[in-house]
Each structure stands twice: as C-alpha cells, then as structure tokens.
Amino acid sequence: MRSLAGEDWLTRPETRAVIAALEAEGGAGCVRFVGGCVRNALLGQPVDDLDLATSLRPEQSMRALKSAGLKVVPTGLAHGTVTAVSGGRPYEITTLRRDVETDGRRAVVAFTDDWAEDSARRDFRLNALYADAEGTIFDPTGEGLADLEGRRIVFVGEAETRIREDYLRILRFFRFHAWYGRGEPDPEGLRASTELAGGVRTLSAERVSKELLKLLAAPDPRPAVRAMAEAGVLAEVLPEAGALDLLDAMVERSGDPVLRLSALLPPDEAVVAAAAGRLRLSNGQRDRLVAAVGEVPAGLTDREARALLYGVGREALRDRLRRAAASGAIGAEAVERLERLAEGWTRPRMPVGGKD
Fold it and tell me: Which segments of 151-265 does DSSP mark as H helices, in order?
C-alpha cells in the first residue's frame, strides 16, 4: 500500500499538534489529509497548502483546536471549513460533506461521516486521494492512484454531473491537464466540457481569471490551451483570443502567465484594456497587458530606447521586447542589446527641484 510516511510536512510538530487536537475530540482516524498535498507528495512535487478532511462537525473542530491552544478561524462554516493556525502555518479543515443542491456556481451541503460520500462530490479522481495521520493512502474511487500514475485527469463519476455542479470545473479540467496530464485529455471530460462550455459565462470574473492565469503558469500550457480552443471554451473565456502562434512562441521565451496571456490578445490597447477589465484583473496586471502590446519601433537607437524607457519604465519595455521577439517583429540581437541597455539604465532625476 502506498504511504507518505516520512514526508516532512506530515511529521512537523505543528502538523502533529493539529492532528492531536482533532483526534482528542473525535478519536483516531477522524481526520485525513486530502487533495493537493497528497497528490503532489505522491508525484514528488512541492507541497504548499495543507488541507484536511474530518468527520468532526465544524463546531467540534473549533472546540478541539481552541482547547489545544491553537488559533482557529471560521473561514467557511456554511461549507464546514475552519482554518487552524499552528506554528504560523494555516491548515484548512473541512467536515466530510455531500451536495444537497447545486446551481453551477454554489452548493448547499450536508455534513456526513462517510468518506466515500465526501470523495464522490470531488472534481477529479486524483484529487480524491486521502492520507491518514501516519501517511497511509486511501483511494475511495478506486482509480485515483491509477490516474496519478498514468497522468490522467478524469472526473469523479459522470463528467457532465460534476460540471453542472460547478462550471468552474471546466477550466479546472484544462488547468489540471496542463499541470499534471499527459497525452490527450480524457474523452468524456473533453466532450462534457465542450457541450457545457457556455456555463463558464455564469461564473464570476475573478474565478475565471484566477484559473486562466494558473493554467498559463504551467510549464507548458500550449496543449491544454489548444484543447480549450478546439472545445470552444477559450472563446467563452477570452473571446479576443485569435490564433495561438504567438502563445506558442511566447512559452519558449517566458514562464510569466501575464506575458503568456498577452500573447493571446491582439495588439490593440483598447481591446486589451477591455479584456482586462472584464476579467477583473488587478490594476498592475491590466497596466502590464496594455503596455506589452505597445509598439517597439524597428531600428530603435540607444537614445530612442532611453526615451522610451523614461516614458514606459523598465518592466514595460522588457514585456514589449519579449512580445515583439515572439511575434518576429524584432530580431534577437536587437532584443539582447535593448535588454542590456534597460538593465543598466537609471531613471534620470530632474536637476532642479521645488526649492530651486
């Protein structure tokens, strides 16, 4: 049987303090790690967030954690989630649950003590893996470990049902394929995503943009983006996107998801600003996208480059250069020369001030 025994995050004193607090209330086996930390540990990838599932009700979890002297925050009581803070690290703890009602965006849940019921409402089989306090792996769907081994992103149960519960799962399907998948996307998941693509229009812009940027941050998002485009999902999320040639070239030059997003947009500042507004991107992200599509004149002299630097700033010029290089509008030698110039440039100060 697979095990995570020996993982440093599992054996840390602050982790053991959380486990001990919950088990003092609900007994041994009442809590398990779930989702990303289990998946990534099995893949040998970094583990960032530590999420736990428990048969304890939220009020029981809060009582147990407080009794152990741990800070606890009621981050989502309606959905059974509390956050414990141990050793300065957050641990998100959610009561086992099943969906009672869903509308494609939100769910009304009922708490349960059945681990199989909890796994049945999760999105993908490789995300429905659990590990107990000793690191023993549990695979309630019976396919999660096999999917992980084969790098397959497959919905739990029927893909259409999972998507109708939350249309964000369409974007997550392509995002997880970009990060963890191999080969062609799962046929049933792809078919359901294609048929229900219009459902992403019901999602909040913030949820959409967050998933899109996470997808574009993958080591090589191109196959997943291409599949999104062929399924009609990209047109729903980013109707401004055209051919994918510029993205293909940009991925070779930069891992920055904002620059990669720029490569999906046309060289029109007004269109880019409108797309950024619709996606509710931050002001900084919007400004970078708009600046990146600005023109870099061919044959730019050093003097002209310094003037452009003064006007747009170092980061904006770098972004423009990378986009221009990816599009073939400027040669590699010119890019290298201008990037060296930008690296050594210091913004000049006005020689006179208010006192003068």
Answer: 159-165, 168-180, 187-195, 205-216, 222-231, 233-237, 245-253, 257-262
